[in-house]
Amino acid sequence: MRQAFIGFDVGGTNIAAGIVSPHGRILKFISHPAEAKKGKKQIAQNTLLVLDSLLKSNISCLGLCLAWPSPANMPLTLEEIKGIINKKYRYPIYFENDANLFTLAEALIGQGKKYKTVVGLTLGTGIGCGVVDNKKIFNGRGLASEFGHVSLNFNGPVCVCGQRGCFEEYAGSRTLRRLAKKYKLSSQTGRELYDLAKGGNKKALKVWQDFGKNLGLGLNGVIKAYDPDIIVLGGQISRAYQFFKGAMYQELRYRPFFKLPIIKVSKLKNAAIVAAAFMDK
Ligand SMILES: [Zn+2]
C-alpha cells in the first residue's frame, strides 16, 4: 500500500482535495461544492463526503492537512471541523490557513524555493496572505499576516469582516465588480474582464489598471511589514497579471525607501493541497 497524505483546500464555494505523495505530487484529485452559504452543517457534511471518498483509495494515510479560510470568510471554524473529523478518524490532522499553505508550497518547491523570506498573496473572492521565513510558516498566535483585512481607507466600503476599507475590498473580486460598474461594463467577473482585456477592450483594460494601482498600494504595506525577498501572487485573479502589473509597479515605485522585492505569479497547481506533504516536517 502506498504511503500518502491527504490535502484539502476548502473555500466558500468549492472543496478541492487530493491524495499527495510524500514528495508533493498529487496522485488523485477531487473537487466538490462546499455550499458554505447553507451553513456549518452542510460544509462539514461535504468535507466528510470528500474525505470518505479519498480514503477508499488504496493508500496508507500518513495524515490530513486542511487548508481552511480565515474566520472572516468561513462560518465553520478550524477547531469545529477538527472535532468533527476526529470523531470519525484517528489520522494526524494538520491545519493551516489556506494562504499560509499556498506560501509554504511556494517557498519549498515553487517560485520562492531559492529565497529566505517569501510572502504569498492569493487573489480571489478575498485576499489571503501568508509569510514563510526560513521555510517555516510565520503565524504569530495563529492569525498573523491577515493583510486582506488591514484597512487602506477608514471611509471605504464595509468588508465582510465588518471593518471599513479592507485591502480585499480594493483588490479582490468585489473590487472588480465595483470597477466594472464604474466603467459601465456589463461583464463583472474576473474571467469576463480578463477575456475583454485580452480582446483589447479599453474599459476592461482600465478596470485592470485601477485594480493594479490598488494592489500596489496594499503591497506597499506588505513590503514594509516583512521586507520579503519575493512576493508570489496566486488565486484566480493573478491570471490577469499581464493587465495589472504595469499599474501595480508604478504605484510601488512612488513609494521609495524600501527595495522592491521580486514579484512573480505562482506556477504551482493546487499549491495549498500539495503543501500537505510538508506539514509533518
Ligand atoms: Zn475585512
Automatic annotation (TrEMBL):
Q: Which organism is it from?
A: Candidatus Komeilibacteria bacterium RIFOXYC1_FULL_37_11
Q: Which Pfam family is one of this chain's hits?
A: ROK
- Matching SUPFAM superfamilies, A to Z? Actin-like ATPase domain (SSF53067)
Give the protein family: Belongs to the ROK (NagC/XylR) family.
The protein depicted here goes by the name Glucokinase
InterPro entries the record matches: ATPase_NBD, ROK
